[in-house]
Amino acid sequence: MSPTAANFGRGKSLGAALLLGALGVLAFAPFECWPLAFVAWGGLFALVRLAASPGRAALIGLCFGLGLYLGGVSWVYVSMHDVGGMPAPIAALAALALSAYLALFPALACAVLSRAVRRPLAPFAAALVFAALIALSEWLRGWLLTGFPWLALGYSQTPPSPLAGFAPLFGVYGVSGIAALCGALLWNAASSLVLRAHPLAIKHSCALASTLLGGWLLAGISWTQPSGAPIRVALLQGNIPQSLKWEPERLRDSLVTYLALTREHPADLTVLPETALPLLFEHLPGDYLATLRQAAAPGELLVGAPTREPGGYANSALTLGPDGQAEQRYNKAHLVPFGEYIPPGFDWFLKLMKIPMGDFYAGPDPQRPLLLAGQKVAVNICYEDLFPDQIARGAQDATVLVNLSNTAWFGHSLAQPQHLQISRMRAVETGRPMLRATNTGMTAHVTPDGRVADVLAPFTRDGLVATVTGTTGTTPYVRFGNLPALLLAVATLALALLGRRPAPPPAG
């Protein structure tokens, strides 16, 4: 092959990787074409196996990641520019930088896979190595530098995907690895069929079908059991624009809106979203808090508001007593970098984003569940539900999960349905109902099997009243966390690489 043809071929592989990454976005909410995950990640596996060197494979993984994250996390630009007021060029550069950083993780996985197959490796063993590397790289992305596991592959496999059945055992990172394995098996079967290697095509097709069947059978297991009497829960969505929420003259709008919604939706437990009351809790009018509590009576009330703590300001969820005073409290433990805390030397970022109260104090992890309406409620705030191990720790002593979010930061983007899909995975992993109260969407009731029982239309001012039954019992994931998935990935790598075929002897 001439150098020109070789360069053209290399260019096509990078372009194909970029397109496959963009295709992968369609596997996630709001599209939820979960089989496309097998096509996209299977295509990535194929390109890496054909790569001439680990460096080339890393470039393929980088392009795949750029296609995936530039498309799937495009809401970062919306958040910084459209809502946060950051100048467009800086917001675009920041979004590109974040996408490039996230793309480093599939690039690393692809480089290691390419190095592993430098010596002959059976197609099935290569598929196992690929699956293990995807699982490990996504766990690393969810942990390094406080973590950002958005669009982890496993999230694309919420119900009705049969792979959701593996979530109570291995969590989202384990499901990521299994989904990558399915993609690699699909490619192996297709390529064997093209090469007329029919026995191999049947072998890989049977392995793929068995994996899907196994997940479907596991989904039929009830890891947890109903606990206590059903309760009526009102999840309120005020739809207050972020650009107006913190303006002093618009404070009354927030207070009046949530008081009216509370009165209109009586329930055993009423939940207001994150920072629904956009003023330090200590500065809110005492008569308003007492009136709000009275409006919810005889039910109980959970309110999102910033508070002043000994360590600084906190992003809190509070229950109110009859006199409007705080009785129980949860302080957000996993803060958003550059949104809720600013690393040293980045004060300029806070000024560009015009973030009010952008440097919070982190609460302890874990915190005891709140006792509300006869249930033990584990609260998490906004993007804390991206971190499965944290939610699993909180779920151990809880019967219900509640997420309070201010999604107005994301505007009209993919973030809201993607965030709901993340919450659905937390419900499946823990076997607990997940209730979401958000400012602009998506406010929802998610059952323990990850099904959305009811959801409000985004960007509407309304309340969702749901009948909810708490659950007790422990899924394997709640008991052991990410450890089984990580150990299985490491063991798979070791067995596949140690058992690979020896290189043929040199000719001559």
Automatic annotation (TrEMBL):
GO cellular component: plasma membrane
Gene Ontology molecular function: hydrolase activity; N-acyltransferase activity
Broadest EC class assigned to this enzyme: transferase
Biological-process GO terms, alphabetical: lipoprotein biosynthetic process
Domain CN hydrolase: 236-470
Subcellular location: Cell membrane
Name this polypeptide is given: Apolipoprotein N-acyltransferase
Organism: Oryzomicrobium terrae
Gene expressing this chain: lnt
